[in-house]
Amino acid sequence: MSRTGDSDAVTVAPEPDDQLEAGDPFDADDVRALQRKSIGVLGGSQVLGGVAVAGSLPAGALIAESISGSEAAAGLAQTFGVVGAALLALPLARVALSRGRRVALASGYFLGSLGSIIVIFGAVYRSLAIVYAGCLLVGVASAAGLQARYAATDLASANRRARSLSIVVWGATIGAVAGPNLLDVSGRWALSLGLPPLAGPYLVAAVVCGVTVGLLLVFLRPDPYRESLRLRGDVKPGVQRPRIRDGIEHLKNRPRAVLGIGAVAVGHVAMVMVMVMTPVHMAHVDVSLQLIGLVISVHVAGMYALSPLVGMAVDRFGRLTVIGAGAVILLTACAVSGLARADDVVTLGIGLFLLGLGWSCTLIAGSTLVTDEVDPPERPAVQGLSDLTMNVAGAVGGVVAGVVVWLASYQVLTAVAAIPVVGLVVWASIPACRRHSNTRSM
């Protein structure tokens, strides 16, 4: 059993390939080749899925506002997307447990494609209820994208686990940048078909999610999760159709796995709280939409662009070390953003970049820690629970952020966002979280 990258010391010598345990099935050349293929397919699905989700999110809000004339209704469109991702996180994990990652991910993107078509109908018939129902299903594509990062670890050896996960996370960069920039082109496409221009991004999402389904079903073979069980010899009666609650039960004696879930959730809630209100904060002093968009673009770069380097750091220095570094970066981001003037684009850009980088550290290190500390047959269930917790935390954070700014100020919000991060630092220092669980994490 390899524990490479699990040490929580500040500096840990990297474990070269020839120091892996003899007989490690994931160090064989054919398994490495299969892992590279899986990473390529999963990375491609992230690019496509990112185009679909990132492009459709702003369009959904605009469609809802055009129908209702209410900004609150616009916000609900995005909320339904988050709710959809949260509600389907565990069902997708259940599919992964019983049918494998390929079917689970393809199912998520199929529902995303179906949801996109439903939103188009809602836009044509100007029905807010239909638009919300579609946004709910489009959110499932988001859940599939989150699960893809865990699929990247199924065939990875322990000393490459974080790097594999981070490469798939990085794939979302392209989609996150390209998606919103297709609004104008897709709008003209929709007009040419006699549809409302705002339905265009959902036309793109429907097609792209459909292509992603085909990509996964055709090329993600053999299924990485089921193949990993076969290599470990875990394919036997009693584990073919495990229950989600078995995975939750599994966490009772896995404090480090719980910490990993907490790190992902805390990083996400702090990021969402500050990020969602920064454009509003800047708009109050008439900062141009172009400059606001630039700050958000810098933030997205912080979230994704450096993820491969973050993954290398997680494998090199240890999971808890990078979680701690992420917490420090998040606290710095809250301080920089909170102290910046609303029209100080440069300082806010630095703060939002650090906010994205801190999120990347807690996401990649926390997700890797969850995978390390949970027995392989239970991983999809616990990973699904992690995604559920992350999405719920983000939804709550968005609501709390609006209330805090309404009652107080953006500066107070950044201080409030720092509170759970400080709690994470204290949590990670608990001795039980610094001792390895007795689990197989080959």
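Second entry:
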Amino acid sequence: MPRDTRTPALTKLRKACLALPGAHEVEAWGAPTFRLNNKLFAMYAHADNHHGAGHEAVWVKSTFVNQGLMVQHKPKRYFLPPYVGTSGWVGVRLDGRVNWRELTELLKDAHELIATKKKTGPLLGAKRRASRARSGTRS
């Protein structure tokens, strides 16, 4: 059993993520990741690897607006994670006192971002095709 599976914070994180509809766990880059339809919505970062940078954390898919507000409001709790911070993801430190209600809501939002994209993707494509058909353009 990898050491990551024994941390109390990861146990709570795993429970919160896997309670979301259709969520599943995949180990990637040596760490647990949480996905919907194989699209990442959260990634665990152990304190002992370069992803955690000395802090046990989770990286959560977010919007740029929410990311900015969280990091500005609570810079000791939230941070811009490497690699994905430039895409709107937010890092949440899991060491110290964690507001699990708040984190669970963030995870739900991240899950919903993936679910909404999945729901609207084909719909938007159908609207584009219908618009092209009405205007007589192709492609």
